[in-house]
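User: These chains co-purify. Model them together.
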Amino acid sequence: MSADKKHLSEFQIALRNFKKNRLACLGVVILGLLYVAVIFAEFLSPYSYKNENRNYSYCPPTVIQFFDENRLVWPYVYGRQLEFNAYHGRIYTIDKTQKYPLRFFAPGDTYQWLGFLPGRRHLIGVSEPGRFYLLGADSRGRDVFSRLLYGGRISLSIGLIGVCISFTIGLIVGGVAGYYGGRVDDILMRICEMFMMVPGFYLLLALRSAVPDNFNSVQVYFAIVVILSFIGWAGLARIIRGMCLSLREREYVLAARTFGLSDRKIITGHILPHTVSYSIFAVMLSIPGYILGESALSLIGLGIQDPFASWGNMLSDAMSIVRIKFAPWILLPGFFIFVTVICFNVIGDALRDCLDPLLKSEVKG
Amino acid sequence: MWGYILKRFLVAIPILLAIAFVTFLLMRFTPGNYLDTMRMDPQYSKATIQHYEELYQLDKPLLQQYLQWIKNILRLEFGYSFYYNVPVVQIIGGRLWNTFVLSCASFLFTWGVALPLGITAALRRNQWLDRLIQFFSYVWLSVPSFFLAMILLYAASQTGFLPLGGMVSPNFEEMNFLEKALDILKHLAIPTIALSVGSIAALQRIMRGNMLEVLGQQYILMARAKGLPENKVVYHHALRNAINPLITLLGYEFSSLLSGAALIEIICGWPGLGALMLTAVRSKDIYLVMASMLMGSVLFIIGNLLADILLAKADPRIRYERG
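Assistant: Joint model of the two components:
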């Protein structure tokens, strides 16, 4: 071992190993881009999530034109003409007489960025009556690209908040059960078992049905987060409890106790910090569960309600499969869920690989 | 062994009662119940509604209602489904069976594919085939099952090779036994694949890891050293030890299948317990919800128990009688 390595803490070593994993770094970059994109959703999207125009139902993606009569010009898009065929199917033909130049920082729907900063400029757009559908339109003629950004806000944040709640509960319950042992342990673990003995999706449905119908969308969002974390904490609590059972026998815990530290301080300050390397990758690997849970609920109509967008409820358009043939872009939300999940999985796996030695030295060593 | 099974059942009973109680509370605190829907329907007279209220004691205090329900359960009376207008028992049995069929099919498919894949990957460690399997299992692990089901349904609608949703064809009654079986199998294909692909990927990785670990053991070296043919080393000495740890997973695997099956049932129109639960929850059909929840949990517990028993059978080192 060279001299400079001695100055690295174990975490820094783990971090360096993580950086060597190219795939995981790619995952971090993609996730980072996704998060930045959804944070600036209002600005990056050409339309608001509820800007609808029924004349453009399932309008195909707009192609950006760069050439006009073989000359390179400022990018523009053509207008669309809607016709119906003999079976009342919608046919969109390109109307070459209408040209709408792309405009940057174009004024459009007004918005409150993150709920407080008012604005009406969008990164890209075309002036009315032209419509700019980068990734096509949904059944009500709303821009799928804009809704993907807004929907990503729900889908990407629900995992983070859910994991925070369930890990807090899991760590506390696991820590208390493992530290005290005996009867406390018995009772807490029976409760855990109860949660683990119910099929998750059934519990999800039952809990969701208990949410009042008159909740507004923000309340429903938080209700779903709470429900998902309510289901998810038990598995973690059991594992943390197992680790704490062995940690509490260690000398430093005995030392802390002889110094007269309170139980609360011993658990939070001396025992739980040693489960941190497990928790880090467990967090990463459990986030997809929340994203999938929300998507599944929204997909069957029990989650985020229209007109608000989430990747799950956007995908419910594709539940009637005949539409997929005429408007394959309605499958895009599913693709985004897939990309997000695979990123979290890759990062979680990489973290496990580089934290594993650390974990072994902490709990067993 | 029998003592152990009995003990497990006894432990399960209070947990089941608690689950039922929580579900009961949830449903009672839900705003509105099915009788409210009836009240708004002019078809039902006030007397009918009052009759129902008295019959199911919906006007009594909560605890009394719950105890009454438990009493009925013990006589295998699960109450009355307001939505379907028949006793719950009549619906739930068939649905339970359908979910069981789907779960079993998916289970067999998962293990039947994942184990050979894992073994192949381990034996060709770091060769291209292994890399290919690992790459695809990474991808498939992350594909949401509902998304996969949609794509498969779409593919089926384009090719016309497999039926779209449901469990039987419209002319099911006219078929002979063999055709009936084939018909159900055809309908089973899409939900089974959608449900299994993720688990195959996960299980394959675990199997590969176990196999590699066992192949590194000294008794394998010993077996090779004394000149046993490679086939015998792998399939006789290594495989059994590599599979053992997987059996602990079996119960969890089956349980998570059950939970995952609910969503796939809804999307593929498979008439199972999960789809029933959704209908019941939506229409606030309280007894149907409670019965579905309870039956789901029972299936779940049986799955776990079966796994433990199998583990004991497969691994002579494990004894359940003591401790």
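The CA atoms of residues 122 and 165 of chain B lie 37 Å apart.
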